[in-house]
Amino acid sequence: MSVADVRPPRLRLAFISPVFLFPADAGGKIRTGNILRGLKESGQFDITLLSPAHAEQQRQWQGELDRLCDRFIGWAPAAPRPRWQRAPDLLSPLPINVANDRTPAAVAAVERVLAEQAFDVVVFDFVHAAVLRPRALRGATVCFTHNVEAEIFERHAKTASSAPLRWLWRSQAAKMRRFEREALAGFTRVVTVSERDAKMFEKNDGLKTARAIPTGVDLDFFSWQAPASGAPVVVFTGSMDWEANVDGIRFYIEEVWPRVRAQVPNAQLRVVGKNPPASLVQRNVHGVSFTGFVDDVRDHARDAQAFVIPLRVGGGTRIKAFEAMAMGLPVVSTSIGIEGLDVDHGTHFLRADGAEALADATLKLLADDALRLKLSRAARSLVEDRFGHRVAADVFGRILMEAVEAAGAGQ
After folding, report:
1. In terms of residue numbers, what domain contains 211?
2. Maximum Cα–Cα distance for the chain, whole Å?
3. CATH number for the domain that contains residue 278
4. Within this chain, do residues 187 and 261 fall inside the same structural domain, yes or no?
5. What does the pLDDT look like over 54-100, one tens digit per residue?
């Protein structure tokens, strides 16, 4: 056997997610799945994935899990609780979404696996998962942050419709700022989804260990086609049980959509995503439809002439923007909706902030075949060159190796 045939041993990676990754119906699940798939395809890592999962979920999604990891270990998910039952969590020193992730089953499973097996590096997915980190854990540790979480709460506080809600969001923001700062300081490396987020952690929390990865999209799955002509269709995709998406779509329906329909009376707005709130669905606004959960978002987006991201609240990066661009859908977005992505207004998408600007940009795309095709081609080319999921996974893998080296050197 030649020296060239001897491969270095695979790094033993434990990856702890606070949510089961399938169905991949939310941006965080999609991003994490793409990263794990790329890491496994690299052949450099032996991956143990831990997350909540029922036995039936494991059986149903075993084939997809096999694409992400070498072994999967699940713990019993906590039963969903209505909001009124979660109210006591508001008194916790932890942010409410973090307190919700610290279940006895999760704590026990993580402690047991990390005590029984030796890993070269342990990754906690989302800062929320840091609440599951055993106190005695040593060695290389990495936190994969998909957002600057405190910033999301602070933005909610600014857009909340009443004084009590503004107070509530400010209270949660302060708790999250404290939790985020203390938790991230204890990791060997912190992975962010944009250079902007890495700089925010350094500026706000003095964090020197943050490293950014590009936002990666599966270019084979989201294949390109020329933008549709014909019936005027506008589409939004995203989990409709996430407050930032609900806020953005409510704003678009109330403030933007009437302006669009005044100029294009037959325009249709399709909101694609799970669990839309009844308060929106039951309004029965002319030209607006909600799909709820769908098996394949592509089937409901391909015929759109404009893909809108009207977010006023959010953090991290919106993987939906690159998925749309990969498919060839012309994108209209607020500054927050496109935040952290290295794209240019007028070349890869149209930026529009405020109701009038969003309506004007939407109408421009509905009316201009040539503009739609120009944006579509330029955006797909950019995503192909720089933002495939394997590129993002390669960068993530290098950060994991850096963490192992730093931990070994006592840094």
Report:
1. 3-216+389-408
2. 74
3. 3.40.50.2000
4. no
5. 999 999 999 999 999 999 999 999 887 777 667 777 878 888 888 88
Residue 222, in any domain of the structure: no
Tell whether 185 and 241 lie within a shared domain: no
Q: Which of 219, 210, 248 is nearest to 319 (CA)?
A: 219
Determine contact, residues 307/380, Cβ cutoff 8 Å. Answer: no
> ∠ CA(257), CA(262), CA(264), 5° rounding?
90
Gap between the Cα atoms of 80 and 142, Å rounded:
28
Cβ atoms of 307 and 324 closer than 8 Å: yes
**Which amino acid, one-letter code, is at 227?**
P
Is 225 contained in some domain?
no
Q: What letter would DSSP give residue 253?
A: I
Q: Are strands 268-272 and 288-292 parallel, antiparallel or unpaired?
A: parallel
- 299 burial via Cβ count (<10 Å: 0-12, 13-18, 19+): exposed
Domain count, the chain: 2
Residue 278 and residue 394 share a domain: no
pLDDT of residue 1: 47
Quickly tell me which residue has 């996974």 as its tokens. Answer: 393
One domain, residues 378 and 393: no
Strand pairing of 189-192 and 210-212?
parallel
In this structure, the dihedral spanned by the alpha carbons of residues 378, 320, 215 and 132, taken in order and rounded to 10 degrees, is 180
Q: Are 255 and 322 in contact (CB under 8 A)?
A: no
Residues 398 and 372 in one domain: no
